[in-house]
Structure prediction request, 91 residues.
Amino acid sequence: MAHDSVKLYSAIYVALLVAATLNFALFETSFVEFTYTQAIVGTLVIATVKTLLIVAYFQHLRWENRSLTYLMGLALALTMLLMAAATYSIS
Prediction:
């Protein structure tokens, strides 16, 4: 493994660690008071950033063909659609 890739993966790891710590510090403690909606939106934004970093770098999608990336995006969109449909069927 090249020295540059070790530095890159280390930087991504630190970014994920900071995001997880930020998520806990802001939304799980009473350090700063947020409304329920603000906490949910903030948590989802941080989770989305963390997911994109993991998928792009640790699952190597950043270096794959665009067609595979689009296929993964389609799978994600269909999964979200099925989750939305399940939400309506439960209630």
The chain has a mean pLDDT of 83. The CA atoms of residues 5 and 59 lie 14 Å apart. Residues 3-27 form the longest helix (25 residues). The chain is about 80% helix and 0% strand.
